[in-house]
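Thread: "does anyone have the structure for this chain?"

Original post by V.I.:
We have the sequence but no experimental structure in hand. Need at least a predicted one for the grant figures.
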Amino acid sequence: MAGSINKVIIVGNVGNQPEIRLTQASGEELATFSVATSERWKDKSTGEQKEKTEWHRVVVFSPGLVRVVKKYVHKGSKLYIEGKLKTRDYEDESGVKKYTTEIVLASYSSTLVLLDTKKDGMEFSDQSDKEGMEYAKAKGLEGDGVEETEKDGEGNENIASDEIPF
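Reply from O.Q.:
Generated one for you, tokens below.
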């Protein structure tokens, strides 16, 4: 295999108020929060409705997306998230080595879409955040739901699905 892909996509609800803190290395802001995803099914043997919830730890390093999290994301927010899966180790208070797996939003390929805004949703990537926020402020749309398009690495614009004529 010539290459590999590390991409995670989830849609779920924020389970706690996002925590904003500074990185130890550079002193830049980062945001952390948990997102719950659920699946439901009917038990074939009992006919009973079952549900299982998974919790995902999300870490946002992208400065533009950290600003969006600070301003718009709160406990209960419904989000669409695209990021990378990363596992890291750390030592707990008693010196025991622990491992944690997180969804990391750090690079140009990370996306955060607010799905529970007043309109269709606000979409932000670390490339489109600054321009999108300035546009929203200029148009008086800030906080009301703005869908931003993002550009891929070759300068091509990804078109929102509601702009396609078929």
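V.I.: this helps a lot. The longest helix spans residues 129-139.
O.Q.: and The helical segments are 63-72, 129-139.
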